[in-house]
Amino acid sequence: MDVFQIEGGHTLNGSVSVGGAKNAALPIFAATLLTGETCRIEAVPDLTDIRFMAKILRYLGARVDQTGPHSWEIEAKEVHHRAPYELVRQMRASVCLLGPLVGRLRRAEVSLPGGCVIGPRPIDLHLKGLSRLGCTIDVRNGYVEVDGSGLRGDYLYLGGRHGPTVTGTANMVMAAVLAPGVTRIESAACEPEVVDLCQMLVKMGAKIHGIGSHYLKIEGVKELKGCQHSVLPDRIEAGTLLIAGAMTHGEVTVENVVPGHMRALLDTLESCGVECEIFPDQRQITVKKNSGEYKPVEIITLPHPGFPTDLQAQMLALMSLTPGLSFITERIYPNRFMHVPELLRMGAHISMEGASAVVKGVDQLYGAPIMASDLRASAALVIAGLAAQGTTWIQRIYHLDRGYESLESKLNALGAKINRVDESLLPSELLEDA
Questions:
Q1: Of 230, 253, 279, which residue constitutes the final position of a domain?
Q2: Fewest C-beta atoms under 10 Å: which of 18, 147, 376, 377?
Q3: Is residue 118's pLDDT more than 80?
Q4: Could you tell me which of 361, 354, 353, 347 has the C-alpha nearest to residue 315?
Q5: Same domain, 285 and 310
Q6: 13-63 pLDDT tens trace
Q7: 310 marked ligand binding residue
Q8: 124 annotated as ligand-binding
């Protein structure tokens, strides 16, 4: 396996462009199962999760071709209904196959995805929604078996304990677009990635009203057609790069962004003294150079348009070098603090109080051998390594490759010193210590 060797202490400066959003591309790939015609998807990030989804679609019978570095062509003329455990277990997001399979075939058999390191993410709202749409559901031997022969439009409420379900909303929309009658979804997720999926479905002939709001009205149609669609820019990658610029007190311009998707982050950065210049017409945001100290903040992660849970770890890394006390509360995934023990190894001062992290800023972080546990934790540890004194070695960076395309190359182009090397090159004394 590969590891990162990061030489800290280098200020980032320059411009960098973000790619398409993973969290939009995955359900968009799944949506191609709703038609037998060809769909051409552009601005797709080159990630392991994308390749896993392509593999699953091929297993289901679709023709899936990568026509360029970020372009794919998918044609699902003949599709079967069963997605097995050996494929689904590799990626939780594959649960979003339930909706399109039920919509297209009126039948689905998908392995339960299981838990993950950031805590349980049950699909009860997905199953409740399908049941409301007239489906019969049986969970046995680790599989969800759905009989959608009675599929029809109805009223759905998708609010959950931690807010609307994003993947659940995507699933219900994809099932409903081919369901007879009218479906009304209340407390729908309104994340930009859900909006992007709905906009693609409209191109395919779906009738969806209220896109971007918590209330969606869907008039079922008999069939959908192929289309061409470009995935929206990744707001999480953009936020990660902006925070990296702030962490090293550099001046970094992030291109190919939609500032309107990032208001919560930009407001939070402004509150802690990070000056951001926004160029909406050029789709650019610049973090300005700051030689002074930042200010502590209080952050609570919430569904969009609140502060995104996928940027919580990165902001925690920034706050670890910010004088004073910062408070970060996780309302989406309360267990999503696997990065904290690794930051402590680097000299951070963080204490946990339930689902909240109390961060007392320190003067300096120090390079150390650390272990990535999940996608966003990996990004936070990279950011911390950039600002640390000395060398940081990060193991299990395959997590990072799930959601960031060539992150080290983009950061190196800004002045970072990151080497991707084989784990065998990790110094033996560090390997034993880790």
A1: 230
A2: 147
A3: no
A4: 361
A5: yes
A6: 999 999 999 999 999 999 999 999 999 999 999 999 999 999 999 999 999
A7: yes
A8: yes
Distances in Å between the alpha carbon of 250 and those of 96, 301, 316, 412, 419?
A: 39, 26, 18, 13, 20
What CATH number has the domain bearing residue 84?
3.65.10.10
pLDDT at 430: 62
Query: Per-residue pLDDT averaged across 175-194, rounded?
Result: 98
249 and 219 part of one domain: no
Task: Provide the token pair at 385.
Answer: 């390594």
H or E segment and range at residue 340: helix 340-345
Sheet holding 391-395, edge to edge: 369-371, 391-395, 2-7, 418-422
Establish whether 203 is an annotated binding residue.
Answer: no
pTM, two decimal places: 0.95
| Residue among 153, 158, 151, 152 at smallest CA distance from 215 | 158
18, burial (CB in 10 Å: exposed 0-12, middle 13-18, buried 19+): buried
Looking at 184, 200, 230, the residue that finishes a domain is 230
* 88-93 average pLDDT score: 74
Q: Are 226 and 361 part of one and the same domain?
A: no
Please provide the distance, in angstroms rounded to a whole number, between the alpha carbons at the two ends of the chain: 15
Does residue 123 have a known ligand-binding role? yes
Q: Can you give the three-state secondary structure of 12-65, one letter per residue?
A: CEEEEECCECHHHHHHHHHHHHHCCCEEEEECCCCCHHHHHHHHHHHHCCCEEE
- The residue type found at 142 is G
| Residue spans of alpha helices (H) in 177-284 | 192-203, 235-247, 263-271
Was 122 annotated as part of a binding site?
A: yes
Strands (E), 211-320: 215-219, 228-230, 251-255, 276-279, 284-287, 298-300
Domain extent, residue 196, equals: 22-230
Backbone angles phi and psi of 112, in degrees to 5: -60, 135
Same domain, 61 and 38: yes
Q: Is 23 annotated as a binding residue?
A: yes
Q: Is the dihedral of CA 175, 177, 183, 188 positive or negative?
A: positive
pLDDT of 434 reads 46
Whether residue 22 is annotated as binding a ligand: the answer is yes
Q: Tell me if 125 is assigned to a ligand binding site.
A: yes
Task: Indicate if the pLDDT at residue 119 is higher than 50.
Answer: no
116 is catalytic: yes
Task: For residue 25, give both structure tokens.
Answer: 């591309």
The first and second tokens of residue 280, run together, are: 């909406």
Selecting among 39, 116, 190, 227, the annotated active-site residue is 116
- The two three-digit tokens of residue 121, written as one number: 């993410």
**Alpha carbons 392 and 401: distance in angstroms, whole number:** 18
User: How many structural domains is the chain composed of?
Assistant: 2
